[in-house]
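Margin note from the TA: students keep mixing up input and output lines. Inputs are the sequences; the output is the structure of the whole complex. Example:
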Amino acid sequence: NAGVTQTPKFQVLKTGQSMTLQCAQDMNHEYMSWYRQDPGMGLRLIHYSVGAGITDQGEVPNGYNVSRSTTEDFPLRLLSAAPSQTSVYFCASSRLFSETQYFGPGTRLLVL
Amino acid sequence: AQSVAQPEDQVNVAEGNPLTVKCTYSVSGNPYLFWYVQYPNRGLQFLLKYITGDNLVKGSYGFEAEFNKSQTSFHLKKPSALVSDSALYFCAVRDNRGADGLTFGKGTHLIIQP
């Protein structure tokens, strides 16, 4: 049981490049979400999903796209990276209407 | 809209002394409240939660938290601090009426001095 996994662990992009951050969970959780962590700002919700085929925006969705084709996977796409997207990104999952979210180890992204 | 405030950026405590990390919240409905801990270069680990029932909640590593509805607070406590408790602590809230994600506070650095 791997829990929540994220790849890559670290990535450097140039402004304007695109990339996808991968997130997968093997706990059959229906609820998945993406957060970004910036110094002094805590974690802010980017997008979330309550099940396959259903996604919604969080607090800071601009510049990010998501899709949920399976229960297990919830990729986060940056279509045109900007320096303001330099951050640490965490994926989390939980059973729907359950309360405890389980977090992945994070992806550190640097946009030059 | 839901929100969380952690008024202290940093808390310093001597090893063996009791510690308190403060958290206040705001939600429209009834709150689900959480504490998470983050060690350097690691993800967040769940410590404890309040959903309903007893106002005093016990969690991992000897931590506990007290839910106070009138003061809208959920302070994290431990009777005797360890150097290994030094980390970044986040309080989070979720409104029980919706499927929205957690709203986190900005975090409090807890430093336990030997």
